[in-house]
Amino acid sequence: MARVRRGSAVKKGLKFFLYGAEGTWKSSFCLDFMKMKDEDGKPLRVAYIDTEGGSVDNYLEDLENEGISLDNLFLIYTSSYYETLEWVEKLVNKEELYLQDDDGDETDEIVLDADGNPFVADVIVIDSATVIQDTQKYGKLKTSEIRAKLRAKSKDASASEQFVAEATAGMEFKDYDKLNQEGKHFLQSLITRTDQYICVTSREKAKKKMEKNERGEMVSIDVGIIPDCFKGAEYEFFTVLRNFEDDDGEIKAKVMRKDRTKVFAQNEIIDAPTPLYWQSVIDGNKGKNKAVILQDYNKSIENDFNKENKGYKDVIKESQQNVETKSSEDIGTADKNSSLYNDLTKLRSSMTPNQKKEMTQLFRENSLPVRPTKDTDDDTLQKMYDIALTIK
Predict the structure, then answer these.
(1) Topology of domain 15-132+177-283, per CATH?
(2) What pLDDT score does 31 carry?
(3) Can you tell me the distance from the alpha carbon of 82 to that of 84, in angstroms, rounded to the nearest whole number?
(4) Engineered SS bond to 123: which of 100, 197, 227, 264, CB 3.0-4.6 Å?
């Protein structure tokens, strides 16, 4: 639903989109958030989703040598689009985070910040969106191969023809459109549903245009530089920067289109780009009202979809009733398990840190897992859920 408020001054947000070629300080820009303070003078806590496999590891020792506590940095290594979605969900909802063992399995040890409190991110970094875009592209390419094979099979093609159809398949226009829409929706939802500071990086690529040459042939020519990311993604952010190396080998950044914080003007060139230039924005937030009028872009889409498809409500309702009348044997243990897991997860997410701590202790006392997983059996989930309901 639409939200309203009076026109009083509220805290300003920092939502950066940063793109550039290799070696133009994109990752170091993101890590410089570790050198910044919140409006009360405490170091910012940074959750860093590293999709490039250790792009920041070599910088960590330098930060430590500057006296910066790495306990205020939580690193997540993944190149998966869907894993990125899952981690962003945890960070935005400010869920408790847990350390992993050497096999990558979650332990019951809570991640703590430099003050010994449960880690809650002030800044969420995704470095870079190019990688998760490429992962999505590969997944859709595999889907297009299956689609091409099925099409060939439906036309009674031979095994060899089916193989060729699959091997030469490529993404279609609708695949690219869906890819870009999914990526933009994800980024827009990230921007609009949290007042945490956001920084997303991207590689760059040449912008192409088809033109006729002197012989009348259509050829592709370079007409500029654009982000190598979900098309139009940069429009969702408050501040858009392109990092580059000038003729003297100095790293600089250009303000592209906008800086809604008004720290820099459009097209202004910034020497040695760093978010430290925007510390004044955070300092200026002290005493201002919290920007509570946040929007969940995905919920807006769902709301519009429901209104647009209002005429189908009876059909949907009838379909749901048919599902609900199935016997428990037809539904199966897996579905019941999933329902219990989801209910327990939602209940846990609504708890305060102290309530979660109390619940974890009760789980241990009753010889139950400290956290539910989708593989936890139905009886155990029910016991955990019953205990969770007793937490006040």
Answers:
(1) Rossmann fold (3.40.50)
(2) 96
(3) 5
(4) 197
